[in-house]
Write a sequence for this structure.
């Protein structure tokens, strides 16, 4: 009579990850059954042929933004977000790593809205897909199968904000409204990529281009440098709202504030795509 097979040892649960992980961390944990890798690339990097093995599409240009809104990249309703995350195979116990094909561009937006929906077991891959490939790790053009998950949305108020709250914050001496767009777009010297929008910025806001927080190869700067740049830009004010063109790169600033233990910021959902519309008749400033 054959002896029964020994029981397989239980899989050790993944502890919550740090908010920013490197390619080595991801490679060490890539085969864990609780790990879900999400590709949050947008624009030219969306649906790229090559991806990290097992990665699933967190489509900010598609279902992971609210397409009932006339504004790009706004947060979908909680029920829609929950449905899409379940379809991606995300469970409440999952550990999620998000990345994008540019390095650091749209992945902090994915992390931010996961957090706004009450999910804290997520991390951003520092340097994104380029860093993964530069470290010699494999990519694939195949889509791995996955089963539906049981993700439950628990919306957190305050991590995303609207036009009225931003308007009030602009006159609050304790709040910095920080604009992540390029300096030329902030001053109005460069045209907006969305041609129907007015040039310029929110009166009383401060400019910190998101590129000032990144290295040339698309990694976040070391934490001391991030802290210095954010502290200088916010002038030690206790409250922070970040904004940009459509709410994507504003999350690069907000995520950096989270990394450096600045007070929890709020992201202006809609950003300049909302404020800068001519029909709003909201005040616009130009110049520095």
């Amino acid at each position: 009579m054959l002896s029964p097979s020994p029981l397989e040892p239980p899989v050790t649960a993944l502890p919550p990850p740090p908010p920013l992980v490197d390619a080595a961390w991801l490679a060490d944990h890539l085969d864990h059954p609780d790990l879900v890798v999400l590709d949050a690339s947008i624009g030219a990097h969306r649906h790229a042929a090559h991806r990290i093995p097992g990665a699933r599409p967190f489509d900010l240009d598609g279902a992971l933004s609210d397409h009932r809104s006339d504004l790009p990249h706004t947060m979908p309703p909680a029920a829609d977000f929950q449905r899409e995350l379940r379809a991606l195979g995300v469970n409440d116990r999952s550990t999620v790593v998000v990345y994008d094909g540019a390095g650091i561009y749209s992945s902090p937006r994915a992390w931010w809205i996961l957090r706004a929906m009450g999910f804290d077991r997520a991390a951003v891959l520092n340097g994104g897909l380029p860093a993964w490939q530069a470290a010699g790790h494999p990519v694939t053009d195949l889509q791995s199968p996955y089963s539906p998950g049981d993700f439950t949305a628990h919306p957190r108020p305050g991590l995303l904000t609207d036009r009225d709250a931003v308007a009030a914050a602009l006159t609050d001496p304790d709040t910095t409204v920080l604009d992540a767009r390029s300096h030329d777009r902030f001053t109005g010297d460069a045209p907006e990529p969305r041609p129907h929008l007015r040039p310029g910025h929110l009166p009383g806001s401060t400019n910190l281009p998101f590129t000032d927080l990144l290295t040339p190869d698309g990694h976040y700067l070391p934490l001391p440098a991030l802290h210095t740049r954010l502290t200088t830009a916010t002038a030690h004010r206790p409250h922070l709202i970040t904004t940009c063109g459509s709410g994507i790169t504003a999350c690069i600033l907000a995520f950096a504030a989270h990394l450096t233990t600045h007070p929890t910021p709020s992201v202006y959902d809609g950003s300049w795509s909302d404020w800068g519309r001519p029909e709003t008749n909201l005040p616009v400033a130009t110049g520095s």
Observations:
- Residues 1-5 have pLDDT under 50 and may be disordered.
- The two ends are 84 Å apart (CA to CA).
- The CA atoms of residues 258 and 264 lie 6 Å apart.
- Residues 20-134 form a domain with the Oxidized Rhodanese; domain 1 fold (CATH 3.40.250.10).
